[in-house]
Amino acid sequence: MSASVLYMAMSLDGYIAAYTAQRALEAGVLDELNISHIPVLFGGGRRLFEVLPSRIELEIVRVVDTPEATHIHYRVRR
């Protein structure tokens, strides 16, 4: 699954994106992902990756830090 497809899903709905990413990780078809951390605390919400099949190692490929958010591009280690 390409990172751009996952990014489009995350733009639409974070919950759907997390579910899609979890299924792709389980199937072993997700090679890379981008996560944006926005410095706002809501006091609630859903975890991005609530349930994973096993421990998944990620390698940081690129970090872009802006005043609005930190964008981290990861590669899934196999």
Task: Explain what the structure shows.
- A hairpin with a 4-residue loop joins strand 2 (58-65) and strand 3 (70-76).
- The protein is an alpha+beta fold and 78 residues long.
- It has helices at 3-12, 14-27, and strands spanning 32-37, 58-65, 70-76.
- It is flat and about 35 Å long.
- It is built from two helices and three strands; from the N terminus they run H-H-E-E-E.
- It starts with a helix and ends with a strand.
- Strands 1-3-2 form a three-stranded antiparallel sheet.
Brief synopsis:
This protein has helices spanning 3-12, 14-27, and strands spanning 32-37, 58-65, 70-76. The chain has 78 residues and is an alpha+beta fold.
Q: Based on helices, strands and strand pairing, what is the structural class?
A: alpha+beta
Oligomer: single chain
Q: Count helical runs.
A: 2
Helix-strand topology string: HHEEE
